[in-house]
Amino acid sequence: MKKIAVFASGSGSNFQVIAEQFDVKFIFSDHRDAFVLERADNLGVPAYAFELKEFDNKAAYEQAIVDLLDQHQIDLVCLAGYMKIVGPTLLSAYEGRIINIHPAYLPEFPGAHGIQDAWEAGVDQSGVTIHWVDSGVDTGQIIKQVRVPRLAGDTIETFETRIHEHEYQLYPQVLVELGVEPKNP
Ligand code: GRF
């Protein structure tokens, strides 16, 4: 059975959806006060949180993450709103075993503001993408993506909500396709 861990920096709504459907070995957050940690507590998922600034450098911070992944024998790392670039220490240890969700149809609108950037560009459709993580920003090989329309009458809030709804469908689908067993198949 494939063991997964989820990394999130903030709210963790994608983590919540994943943890409701799959056995998540642990959640890691790079913010000790992230709301995702409350969600983990409510769901009974083990959580770890530490911050880059608590370490001498990013290599030491990422080595602590690698140690956690090794200790739990994690097969697949699921980034879901983890707002840091994966650096060489983590990547060299786990490349090919890290996926990320991005709230746009890559290669359109990479970066930290995919929804806002698509909205401001006035597109009539954007999307959601899940991809392998490489050393670039949202550049890794695409696993699966869906289009999400911008509808007449949308505000950025309704557009954003629609994108998130598609995220909550796509992440579980991809996990199943990658061989992660759901809790109640
Ligand atoms: C999601 O839109 C995800 O695609 C992006 O960050 C957001 C995280 O939201 N990378 P949440 O923390 O899962 O609620």
UniProtKB/TrEMBL annotation:
<dbReference type="GO" id="GO:0004644">
    <property type="term" value="F:phosphoribosylglycinamide formyltransferase activity"/>
</dbReference>
<feature type="binding site">
    <location>
        <begin position="12"/>
        <end position="14"/>
    </location>
    <ligand>
        <name>N(1)-(5-phospho-beta-D-ribosyl)glycinamide</name>
    </ligand>
</feature>
<feature type="binding site">
    <location>
        <position position="58"/>
    </location>
    <ligand>
        <name>(6R)-10-formyltetrahydrofolate</name>
    </ligand>
</feature>
<feature type="binding site">
    <location>
        <position position="100"/>
    </location>
    <ligand>
        <name>(6R)-10-formyltetrahydrofolate</name>
    </ligand>
</feature>
<dbReference type="GO" id="GO:0005829">
    <property type="term" value="C:cytosol"/>
</dbReference>
<feature type="active site" description="Proton donor">
    <location>
        <position position="102"/>
    </location>
</feature>
<dbReference type="GO" id="GO:0006189">
    <property type="term" value="P:'de novo' IMP biosynthetic process"/>
</dbReference>
<dbReference type="InterPro" id="IPR004607">
    <property type="entry name" value="GART"/>
</dbReference>
<dbReference type="Pfam" id="PF00551">
    <property type="entry name" value="Formyl_trans_N"/>
</dbReference>
<dbReference type="InterPro" id="IPR036477">
    <property type="entry name" value="Formyl_transf_N_sf"/>
</dbReference>
<dbReference type="InterPro" id="IPR002376">
    <property type="entry name" value="Formyl_transf_N"/>
</dbReference>
<feature type="binding site">
    <location>
        <begin position="83"/>
        <end position="86"/>
    </location>
    <ligand>
        <name>(6R)-10-formyltetrahydrofolate</name>
    </ligand>
</feature>
<comment type="similarity">
    <text>Belongs to the GART family.</text>
</comment>
<comment type="pathway">
    <text>Purine metabolism; IMP biosynthesis via de novo pathway; N(2)-formyl-N(1)-(5-phospho-D-ribosyl)glycinamide from N(1)-(5-phospho-D-ribosyl)glycinamide (10-formyl THF route): step 1/1.</text>
</comment>
<keyword id="KW-0658">Purine biosynthesis</keyword>
<comment type="function">
    <text>Catalyzes the transfer of a formyl group from 10-formyltetrahydrofolate to 5-phospho-ribosyl-glycinamide (GAR), producing 5-phospho-ribosyl-N-formylglycinamide (FGAR) and tetrahydrofolate.</text>
</comment>
<feature type="site" description="Raises pKa of active site His">
    <location>
        <position position="138"/>
    </location>
</feature>
<protein>
    <recommendedName>
        <fullName>Phosphoribosylglycinamide formyltransferase</fullName>
        <ecNumber>2.1.2.2</ecNumber>
    </recommendedName>
</protein>
<feature type="domain" description="Formyl transferase N-terminal">
    <location>
        <begin position="2"/>
        <end position="175"/>
    </location>
</feature>
<keyword id="KW-0808">Transferase</keyword>
